[in-house]
Amino acid sequence: MDVAAVLEQLVQHPVIAVRLARAAGRALTQAECQWLAAFAFLHDIGKLSPRFQAKAWPQNRRRDLRSHLAEGWRWLDGLHKRGEAMDGAAHELLQPLIPLEDGLAWFRALFAHHGRPTQLENSANWPSVAGYDWCAEENHMGEALHAWFGDAAWGDPEALTRPPLIHLFAGLLALADWIGSDERAFSHELTLDIDGYAARARKRAITALRRVGMTDTAWPDTPPDFEALTGFHRPHGVQALIGELPTTTALAILEAETGSGKTEAALWHFARLRSAGSVDALYFAVPTRAAAWQLFKRVECIMRRIGGPETILAVPGQLQAGEAEGVRLPGFEVRWDDGREHWAAEHATRFLAAPVAVGTIDQVLIAGLQAKHAHLRGAALSRSLLVIDEVHASDTYMNRIARTLVRDHMALGGQALLMSATLGSVERAEWLSQSLPGLEQARHSAYPALWHSGSDEPLQAEGANSAGVKTVRPRLEPTMDPSRCARLALEAAHSGARVLVIRNTVDQAVATWQAICDVAPQLCLQVEGQPALHHSRFAAEDRRRLDAAVERAFGKGAPARPVIAVGTQTLEQSLDIDADILMTDLCPMDVLLQRIGRLHRHERPRPAGFEQPVVHILCPESGLDALARNQHFENGLGAWQSQGVLCGIYMDLRIIEATRRLAETRECWCIPEHNRELVELATHPEALDAIDVEMGWQTYTQAVVATTLAEDQHARMLVLQRTAPFPERFPDADETVQTRLGALGPLWELPPDTLGAFGLPVSRLAPPAHWCKGLSGEEMISVTTTNNGLTINVGERHFTYDRAGLKPPIREH
Q1: pLDDT band for position 745 (50/70/90)?
Q2: Residue 49 main-chain phi, psi, to 5 deg
Q3: Distance (Å, rounded) from C-alpha 23 to C-alpha 295?
Q4: CB within 8 Å of 275: residues ≥ 6 apart
Q5: DSSP secondary structure letters along 409-446
Q6: Which terminus of the chain has fewer Cβ atoms in its 10 Å neighbourhood, N or C?
């Protein structure tokens, strides 16, 4: 009853009720909402079985133990044979499902409330056992069902056949099961109270939903305007366009240069929708854990300023809710330093149930996969505005999952905002379900711009292309050698510059950093008085220290003194930093423009010789042709074969060659005025086909395209189709499904008082998933301190952690 009472409240939630109406094809009546709650009342019917009850009996009576889900299916199977149960209540409740072609789909949803579909394993009647009369207990449940859900009824049965309604019910039930099973909200009562318990349960459900942040969340009485949200008097450029969007807009795509205020625009969009009642929550998705932490601080500050709901950090292992920090205790408990409970922040499965959450994109994408708790995540997300930042950063596999999830989210009336500095017309057309424009049309499309569903033409800020222009001079360097890159960086730093070096791979970043340290360690980025570099393979606490060090050296108010920061793609995302000069490996144009966004980002005095922004682009000494013809991989470019499959980072060398040519043939790029043209000339199929023919790369390109198609097909096989019938089962390996997203490696909890790379406390490390093949996750983890750092012992494997970051065992390199 506790779970049914929570579900009853959830289906009456103003925003969720709209989602249910869209799923059902019509609004649900009060009697139908109660029917859903009454059906949810049966979710644990299998616990009546003697095979389940025996788990609590004396050892000598524990025979043939079974899960309550398996026994739930046997109860249903027996119901068909018996023809009657629960003193007539079961037949009466289930009558609407009998004529349906696939009425069992509702039971697949009912018995999936622990996160995965289940099915009847084998037919077996519940046994009769001395001292336990399950039939009498079943009749008690029937009596309660009649008394507590007397008005439950379903009208037109056609709605019951709609897959989106069944999928949404499954997610809401799983969420209700989690909330209704919390003893802090629903204490056990061992005596059946037919007359009084329903009212108590319903009252507790209202309190529980308020406590976990699903209802009655804080929001200002007066809709907050742009100034209240951001502290700026009025929106500018693309920010102003957000105010022109109808609050009913299902999908919007905001394209604008780095530093143009897209984050503030997204939060204003949320504020408008939240005040209008179109959404009740926000999930702000970014590519990396570090980016999530940076953005979390900004969003939390804004929500506090307007009196909005608490913001949680949706990153596994990082317990942060508002200004409170949590520590995980034995038994899945969490102790928060403010003494309060922060329910949604305590478990990754519940992140999407938060009223405001900032986290990694993988937490959303799991809702779109046939993976455990996908339905719960999707149902929780249904009430949210979903913002996906840097949408261009996703690969083919992730894009397929994301597009399917967003499509199903919008089908329920949900809303989404995608943001990018450099989204090409190919991806934009896919997202908006539009035809691809030709190259000439695409390269002259508006930029910055706000595209939205329902219109083929974007909104464009008047005079947007004339503001904030910077003229960047690209310079090709005929080598990717770390020593040469280090010399270029040192020359600039000796001339007084703040130098940003972004390498495509961690190995090259470490080698470049080491070469600089060997000559002038005092010029390197400093953490705790020692040289440091910036990439993803650091403990969460050390990453925050690195982010803070980068912002101190390169932030808006940073002192004008020479410094060199070496890192990987982590330096190009979500950090508000400003370099005098940039050195970067050759990479796709959209990624390159993202990196250039950190060059001359703010107005400030520059050292002599660095008044104009210059980017040095490091290229393979052997050229790209050799990579294509030999299927060779060099520092992120090209590909290698593994078990007959192409693998790599930036595999499509046509895009790389197009980017290289644009740097070679154009003396300067005007940013953002040239952004659209640069991206289209480097990504549009017409431009790429021409390069393919000219270079004779057809064989290599066919292999890359085949790999891309295989990735897309793989995603299609694993994606959760909410417009399809409710599945009978999910793939067996949730972890295999999830880790393919790239952001979900294991999380190692380190022993207490472990001191990390900078001699300060660290608590957990997240190694890349591909380093951990063969590890079960159950291995004992110990730490050994050495002269050069730490050795992390995971079972029989020994990883190194020092100022260069986490390194795999030698055989794993």
Answers
A1: low
A2: -60, 140
A3: 33
A4: 219, 223, 224
A5: HHHTT-EEEEEESS--HHHHHHHHT-PPPPHHHHHTS-
A6: C
